[in-house]
Amino acid sequence: MSNQNTARAESPRGSLLLLSGANLQLLGSREPEIYGADTLEDHVSAARVEAQSHGWNLVAVQSNHEGTIVDAIAAARTVHSAIIINPGAFTHYSWAIHDALASCNFPIVEVHLSNPQRREAWRHVSVVSPVATAVIMGLGAAGYPMAVRAAVELLHRTQQDVASTPAAE
Ligand code: DQA
C-alpha cells in the first residue's frame, strides 16, 4: 500500500451515508430478474470499497419504516457529508423523505437498480428526484459504486466552489 493510501485510510475525509428503503433487505432473492442476484450487503460492500478508494468512510442504514429513514436523514445533516439513497417504493410517494432531504445542504444521489421509467406507470414519478443532486438508475449493481463516485465528484465541486469564492471585503 502506498503512503498516500495509508494516510487516507488513517484519516478519512469524512463519511457518506448510504440509505436503503423498503424491501431492499430482500435483495438477492427478491425478483432477481429485475433487481439482480446481489444482496444488499454486496451493494453496501461495493459502495464502501469505492468510497474508501476516494478516502471516505461509508455508513449504511436500511429500514422498511419511513420514519426511521426520515430520522436518519435528519441526523445525517451534522454527521455526514453526502447521502446516497435508494428509497425503494418510498421513492414514489414519501413527501416526508422529500422534505427531510430538502433540509440537507450537501449532495444527495438517488440510485435505483432498475429503471423505474420503463416499468409500471406508478413508478414513473419520483418525489425524491426534485431534491436529489443527481440520479442514477437502470445500471443494476454497477449503480452503487457509480453513485458513490457521483457523490465524491459533487463534494469535490462543492470544495472547489468554496475555494474559488472571493473573500468578503
Ligand atoms: C427500486 C425501484 C422502486 O420502484 C422499487 O419500489 C424498489 C426498488 C430500484 O432500485 O430499482 O423497491 O428503487
Quickly describe the structure.
With 169 residues, the protein is an alpha/beta fold. The chain has 6 helices and 5 strands.
Bound ligands: 1,3,4-trihydroxy-5-OXO-cyclohexanecarboxylic acid
Radius of gyration: 16 Å
Runs with pLDDT <50, length 5+?
1-8
Query: How many beta-strand segments?
Result: 5
Summed over residues and divided by their number, the pLDDT gives a mean of 93
User: Which structural class best describes the helix and strand composition?
Assistant: alpha/beta
* Helix share bin: 25-40%
CATH superfamily: Dehydroquinase, class II
EC number: 4.2.1.10
Protein name: 3-dehydroquinate dehydratase
Enzyme class: lyase
InterPro entries: DHquinase_II (IPR001874), DHquinase_II_sf (IPR036441)
Structure description:
Keywords: Lyase. InterPro entries: DHquinase_II, DHquinase_II_sf. It comes from freshwater metagenome. This protein is α/β, with parallel strands linked by helices and 169 residues long. The protein has one domain (3-164): Dehydroquinase, class II (Rossmann fold, 3-Layer(aba) Sandwich), CATH 3.40.50. The protein contains six helices and five strands; from the N terminus they run αβααβαβαββα. The chain has helices at residues 3-10, 32-35, 40-53, 66-76, 95-102, 143-164, and strands at residues 15-20, 57-62, 82-86, 108-112, 134-137. It has a five-stranded parallel beta sheet, with helices on both faces. α5 (95-102) links the parallel β3 (82-86) and β4. α3 packs parallel to α6 (143-164) and α4 (66-76) runs parallel beside α5 (95-102). The longest helix is centred in the C-terminal third of the chain and has 22 residues, at 143-164. The chain is globular, with a radius of gyration of 16 Å. The N and C termini lie far apart (45 Å). The relative contact order is 0.17. The structure holds 1,3,4-trihydroxy-5-OXO-cyclohexanecarboxylic acid.
